[in-house]
Amino acid sequence: DVLVFLRTLRYPRGQDRLAEYRRELVQEFDQLMEAWKGNL
Questions:
Q1: Which domain holds residue 18?
Q2: Do residues 8 and 14 touch, judged by C-beta distance below 8 A?
């Protein structure tokens, strides 16, 4: 969301949280892709 993005700009610590969130999203995406490949 835009509000979250603005908040991360204000607080440097929010940047780390954003990076963690992005990392989790990437991991979930990888798992989804693996499961999808397995179903093919």
A1: 2-39
A2: yes
